[in-house]
Amino acid sequence: MKLTLRVWRQKNADTEGAMSTYEVDGISADMSFLEMLDTLNEDLILKGEEPVAFDHDCREGICGACSLVINGDAHGPERTTTCQLHMRSFQDGDTIDIEPWRASAFPVIKDLVVDRSAFDRIIQAGGYITAPTGSAPEAHATPVPKPDADLAFEHAECIGCGACVAACPNGAAMLFTSAKINHLNVLPQGAPERETRVLDMVAQMDEEGFGGCTLAGECATACPKGIPLMSITGMNKEWLRAARKVKR
After folding, report:
1. 185-218 b/e with 16+ CB inside 10 Å = b?
2. Which stretches in the chain have pLDDT values below 50?
3. Strand pairing class (113-114; 18-24)
4. Contact assessment for residue 185 and residue 197, using Cβ atoms and an 8 Å cutoff
């Protein structure tokens, strides 16, 4: 398979970037997208050129580090992570545009690598439980209704990749933040910090400069783990409940 790649190249956060065009040949349909980028970088290194910087870690669709916009879509044409996207999704002779996450809250560090530490700060604001539950067997002794457990697990699947932000026309982080809030707030262990959690995390989200949510729904469409759009509704209800309680 022979492909034309148009890749965003940017030396650092302080310089302007631009698309650069490369030709790659000998690409197998069974390669992952990241393996294809590895092949490109091998060719560039052999030519004495600077390889393309891109983020990755587990390459198993778990960590969310492999975040790229491919032909305008977060993670590419399939509903999966970039590392789990395979070249069989493309055709011989295709031109593929590869860009970093496009959001002001995710500044570019170099080439395709962006700084997503804004997500870390949102979690630090309240995405934890301080209630003492003892060891694992003791914590498991706390009864959790099956519907609540299922809802918590559904939201806990969020891997923090940022596809929701990249896909949103406003650059909003509502789906990510709602997943992190809801998966703790429905559990009894999360009850002591239920109000402060949602108020603090939403406040931090706003402080980071993410856009406002207009329920376009692109976030849920792009999410590789299928976090539902109704998660945002749940967070809004939690925020209103907590805000009213604080005012009293």
Report:
1. bbbebbeebbbebbbbbbebbeebebbebeeeeb
2. none
3. unpaired
4. yes
